[in-house]
Amino acid sequence: MTRTPSEWGFTSLTVHNDHLSGVEAGGIHKPLHTSVQFGYGSSAELVGVFQGSLGGFNYARQGTPTTAALETCITRMEGGRGTVSFASGMAAISAVFTTLLKAGDHLVASRFIFGNTNSLLGTLQGLGIRVSLVDATEVANVEAALTRETRMVFVETIANPGTQIADLEGIGALCAAKKLVFVVDNTVTSPWAFQPAKIGASLVVNSLTKSIGGHGDALGGAVTDTGNFDWSDYPNIFPAYRKGDAGNWGLTQIKKKALRDMGAALSPDAAHRIAIGAETLALRMKAASGNAQALAEFLAGHPAVAAVHYPGLASHPQHERAKRLFRCASWQLSFELADEADCLPFIDRLSLPIIATGLGDTRTLIIPVAHTIFWEMGPERRESMGIADSLIRVSVGIEEREDILADFAAALERR
Ligand SMILES: *Cc1c(COP(=O)(O)O)cnc(C)c1O
Q: pLDDT at residue 374 above 90?
């Protein structure tokens, strides 16, 4: 039996995404629409676009045909109901917090999160939003932190850089029962390996800069509404957006208040590059996570290595959870050397990885964590997040496996 596009697999849908929507002149890609303004034949049409009764674009800060095509693609990948794109992953995360929370509200967030998100939570506290950081690998810790003012729970799938995995199923069920917005940052897993919609997430955030774009040539971020949350119950939706289908209220508010009013719009040029990168997401995830698995196993068996953090290893505390929920354990691993003082010299002995921050690239990237991305937060906070001073993070790329393993072997043996 022939399959219709709605039955196609992940990559079939992704590579045909634009053409399926009827691109001008039969194009296979949505072209780069560089227009800031969009003109209409009559004032009635322009009014219709502004008031939302007609589809269409009015000003590029609120989206272009090029960003809209990418949003459709991300929505399909996530199995969601709609997506709003942003200039970066951080813009997408700050959009969620600042548009859906207000002073007096309480947010429960995982203690194991990306450093810049952690810093952003400090900004929220200055705005009067209370934040509790908990060990979200156990739902009981999240539940214990809830108060009457709690509105939202925020976690990452596989935490950066420690690779802790939140109790995604447990927290999803808890948030559904308590009518809390459950926000999942899916960046490290990517929608190929995991769809948070399936475990009850309300909103999914992706840094498109990482594996979705995948080539280190464009910044972007996205917020996807999974359709799981009933916005008609949510107290912080402004009256102007409490109109029509309640399923659209949350994303409409995020789009109007964050994209339109705060302005961190994704450029059409970046959207185009990200859409091209996204075509090979599944292939790159398979290749990079296969390499990461091999490297993690090699490091775990090496006497010069004191600890390896990778969900694909049976020794990882949430290994079973990773196997149950994710199609792969992804490209991120971190490890500690037995000789802590060798941390920086070891990195300098490697020749294949690029010494740089960044994740989910085609190239292997390596960084000493405490000295760089987690430097600003200081030693106490690092310790509470389980980040050793000698922790090294690797974002494994798609290079030939033997090249990666040979390079790490030589550097460990001080050759
Ligand atoms: C990189 C990253 C972000 C931020 O994304 P940018 O596109 O760099 O702003 C957010 N969350 C996680 C887990 C990340 O790795």
A: no
What is the C-alpha to C-alpha distance for residues 54 and 35, in angstroms, rounded to an integer? 19
Instruction: Note down the domain range covering 182.
Output: 9-278
Q: Which atom of ligand 1 is nearest to the CA of 113?
A: 13
High-pLDDT (> 90) share of the chain, %: 91
Q: Which atom of ligand 1 is nearest to the CA of 159?
A: 13
| Confidence band of 68 (pLDDT split at 50, 70, 90) | very high
Ligand 1 pocket, mutate which of 88, 116, 215 (most atoms under 8 A from CB): 116
**Is residue 2 included in any domain, yes or no?**
no
320: CA distance to ligand 1 center in Å? Answer: 25
Residue nearest to atom 6 of ligand 1 (CA): 89
Instruction: Select from 278, 301, 333 the last residue of a domain.
Output: 278
Shared-domain flag, residues 205 and 299: no
The predicted model scores a pTM of: 0.97
List, in order, residues 6 or more apart from 265 with CB less than 8 Å away: 60, 61, 62, 63, 67, 85, 86, 87, 259
Return the SS3 of 225.
strand
- CA-nearest residue for atom 7, ligand 1, is 89
From the CA of 91, give the closest atom in ligand 1. Answer: 9
The Cα 156–Cα 184 span in angstroms is 6
What percent of the chain stands above pLDDT 70?
Answer: 100
